From TrEMBL:
UniProt keyword annotations, A-Z: Cell membrane, Disulfide bond, EGF-like domain, Membrane, Transmembrane, Transmembrane helix
Record's protein name: EGF-like domain-containing protein
Annotated EGF-like domain residues: 427-467
Species in which this protein is naturally found: Zootermopsis nevadensis (Dampwood termite)
Location(s) in or outside the cell: Cell membrane
Protein family (similarity comment): Belongs to the TMEM8 family.
Any one of the GO CC terms: plasma membrane
A Pfam family the protein falls into: DUF3522
Positions of disulphide bridges: C457-C466
């Protein structure tokens, strides 16, 4: 069929991935009866501003796409928290490409109709290797993504009614025929409830001109049906031999005939985003959990619904605990151990298996998240499953008890076991159940018109729940960084003392301020709340640090110039005001440093030329030119190279400390004597 464009999104900016908050969210809606969906993405570079460069280089882009909810990803390779359900979810599609305006198309055959979400970002790179450049030294580029959705929709679909035979014929010349039937929620044994199922029939291209006659009939069997069931897919247990396969299918079919005990649930919503839970009808609302009795000859089932859009941005948590009882204590002390296996599944009921630790569904494969609790120890009595960004629709929990011996092999349970009491928690929270733990904070973010929650980690922790400590900076490294960045400012003491001895009192005051604010700025910023002390707000200290550092450069150049009296006062005040304005406007800009430096050098050079012409001799003295000026200029050049080009996040504590020392030493060489 012909592709028809049905969805188009405006251009959106992509940024570097450091945490999930950095994603750009793209939303699409796939129409019903779509045979093929083509998701088209194009990323281009847009030059925002640049004083020295005129072009942008292509960058690597990562994109992930899935149905129903936001993709759960870890581009930084961080470990997911324990008991996180990542596999056995709705399939996810991904692509890696360049921001070079070359379109990338993701084709999805027979897509689920409804909401589809893509997350895109500039591909992850280790931030420790990021170069720290001043604004203006590199082009300021924005990666813009444009996206659209084109589909092929089948128009001729025949509806099959239950228990009614539909007959057709097909040959090589006939296009494929499409049929559909609907499965109601009340139906017992189906792959998914409240869904349309599609059947496509086409003739094989083997050169035969004879038409193929066929008929279709859809039948739904009740839970206690005595009719024989035949599994079409014979590869459901392909790791077993033929004899084992027949045996296991027989067991599964026997389980199919077990009675489902449906436990009704009531939804309770709270004021915070993505925060709700499900309780049994007679549970205490204030406790947050409820208890059920599970018999060994039945499958206890619960179903609940996750709403579209409004419920998908948090983490769904299922927790169960096997409670102690007299019957359970008696059998575990003398006969066998008891296990309760739970399967959390999306859209379809499943059957827990033991000891395979699998969840079997009616489609003939294994799906769902598996959790097991048993009576062997207190810690083993509790099981948990976390589902980040759950898909919307019906979810099912199925519980089944099993008895096993000391060799962990299943055995028949005795009648004196009775029923087992299991406490359950079914809830959703922002971010994670423990609110990102000790080393993270939970925030809600908006992207593409949709809200989602995610953790922002501190102290070098990474991961979905800020539980991965593989990149945590050691305490010794934090202490070294704090000491280097603060104590290196003590090298301004000789510069301030020399300025006082040479009666440069204004300059001495500025050098002292530079030392003071730089020390306390880095004391507040470097220790990551462990070895840190903030005298004032970090933003205030940062402004004072940048401002006093540039002002030190300015007053040094004015001191080197041959201007005196009123002109010198005007130069000091105009520089103080201009530098304050530039620092407040953009303190990380290259030009905030370059403009005062160029103006100061121009003033200094012009004053030296005038002085040389006036006294017809070299100015400053030959001693200054030979012994002090060259090493001072060399130190300044080395310091500027370190500050502008060599700093990365990994070596920042060393290179920036060297910048402090080099600039302080340069002042001691460049500051002239009064003579």
């Amino acid at each position: 069929g012909q592709l028809t464009k049905v969805w188009k999104l405006s251009a959106r900016e992509l940024i570097d991935y450091r945490a999930y908050r950095d994603i750009t969210l793209l939303h699409f809606r796939v129409p019903d009866q779509t045979l093929t969906a083509a998701f088209n993405f194009t990323v281009s570079e847009k030059l925002v501003s640049s004083q020295l460069f005129s072009g942008c280089d292509p960058r690597k882009v990562s994109l992930f796409l899935k149905y129903g909810s936001l993709p759960v990803i870890n581009p930084d390779g961080a470990k997911f928290p324990n008991n996180f359900s990542i596999s056995n979810r709705v399939p996810m599609y991904n692509a890696e490409f360049q921001s070079d305006e070359v379109p990338v198309i993701l084709n999805v055959t027979s897509p689920i109709p409804g909401d589809w979400f893509a997350v895109a970002f500039l591909s992850y790179a280790d931030p420790n290797n990021d170069q720290i450049l001043q604004d203006g030294l590199s082009p300021n580029c924005a990666a813009m993504i444009e996206s659209s959705l084109s589909v092929v929709i089948t128009q001729e679909v025949t509806v099959i009614l239950p228990e009614e035979e539909t007959s057709r014929q097909v040959d090589e010349e006939t296009q494929a025929m499409t049929f559909k039937f609907f499965t109601l929620c009340e139906i017992e044994f189906i792959p998914a409830v409240d869904n349309w199922y599609f059947i496509t029939v086409s003739a094989p291209h083997n050169g035969s001109a004879n038409p193929i006659h066929f008929s279709l009939t859809v039948s739904f069997l009740a839970h206690n049906s005595t009719e024989n069931l035949r599994l079409v897919n014979t590869t459901i247990l392909n790791h077993l031999t033929t004899d084992e396969l027949i045996y296991d299918i027989a067991l599964l079919l026997k389980d199919f005939q077990k009675f489902w005990t449906l436990v009704p649930l009531v939804r309770q919503s709270f004021t915070a985003f993505f925060t709700y839970n499900f309780l049994s009808e007679h549970a205490d609302d204030n406790k947050g959990f409820f208890s059920i009795n599970v018999g060994v000859e039945e499958l206890a089932t619960m179903q609940f619904e996750v709403n579209y859009v409004s419920d998908i941005g948090g983490t769904l948590t299922f927790k169960m605990k096997l409670e102690e009882s007299s019957n359970l204590k008696n059998v575990t002390e003398s006969l066998y151990n008891v296990s309760v296996v739970a399967c959390l599944s999306y859209q379809s009921r499943v059957i827990p298996l033991f000891p395979e630790e699998l969840c079997f569904n009616y489609a003939g494969d294994f799906s769902g998240s598996y959790s097991q609790i048993n009576s062997t120890s207190e810690s083993n009595r509790i099981g948990t499953i976390h589902v980040p960004f759950p898909e919307p629709g019906l979810w099912f929990i199925t519980l089944k008890p099993f008895c096993f011996n000391i060799a962990n092999l299943p055995i028949d349970c005795t009648p004196d076991l009775g029923t087992l009491n299991v406490s359950l928690i079914i809830e959703s929270n922002m971010c994670t159940a423990d609110n990102c733990g000790r080393f993270g904070d939970c925030y809600n973010y908006m992207s593409g018109g949709f809200m989602f929650s995610t953790c922002v980690c501190n102290h070098g922790y990474i991961g979905w729940g800020c539980t991965d400590d593989s990149r945590v900076t050691s305490l010794s490294d934090l202490l070294i960084a704090a000491l280097l960045l603060t104590l290196s400012n003590m090298f301004f003491i000789p510069a301030a003392v020399m300025a006082i001895r040479r009666k440069y009192y204004t300059e001495a005051f500025v050098y002292t301020c530079t030392m003071f604010f730089s020390t306390f700025y880095h004391a507040c910023d470097a220790g990551e709340d462990i070895y840190s002390y903030c005298l004032m707000r970090l933003n205030v200290l940062q402004f004072c640090d940048f401002y006093s550092a540039i002002l030190s450069l300015w007053v040094t150049l004015i001191a080197m110039s041959d201007i005196r009296g009123a002109l010198k006062s005007i130069a000091h005040m105009s520089g103080a005001v201009g530098i304050a304005l530039g620092t407040e406007y953009n303190r990380t800009s290259l030009w905030v440093l370059v403009v005062p430096a160029l103006v100061g050098i121009a003033v200094m050079t012009q004053s030296w030329v005038w002085r040389c012409k006036a006294q017809r001799s070299c100015y400053p003295s030959k001693t200054y030119w030979k012994l002090y000026f060259p090493p001072g200029v060399l130190l300044v050049a080395v310091g500027l190279v370190c500050y502008s080009f060599l700093q990365t996040k990994q070596n920042y504590k060393y290179v920036h400390s060297a910048w402090h020392i080099i600039m302080a030493l340069a002042i001691t060489f460049l500051l002239p004597s009064r003579k």
